[in-house]
Batch of 2 targets.
Target 1
Amino acid sequence: MSKRLHFSIRYTLEGRIRHTDGKVRLSFELEICFVGPTKQVGIRRKRLKGDVWCYKQVLEQVLALTSLNQKAK
């Protein structure tokens, strides 16, 4: 059984976190989209390069912000 997801609106964000010497420590993409007819919000994430631990911390912050937004409603 296959599912089809329809994306009506997409927002793609590219982020870079740098060391104090200016070199890129982490590069990543976040794509925020509405999924299907219920208009649930989905976040597609991708680490392009860099430290896995730093990437994990960034994602935890993003997910914490989304849960705070849900509690405010």
Target 2
Amino acid sequence: MDVARFIDEIIAWFIGTKHQRDIKKLQPVIAAINSGEPEMPSLRSEDLKTRYA
């Protein structure tokens, strides 16, 4: 095994990969979007623009 790759794998094990860190950072945004989903069908187009713009 290449030494550089081995070191990269060790670092990724401790702090996660770039993709894992990005997903962890976006989880609160996704949760906020999903929490508003049940009321979406009842909102008019104008309400959506003012609420989510």
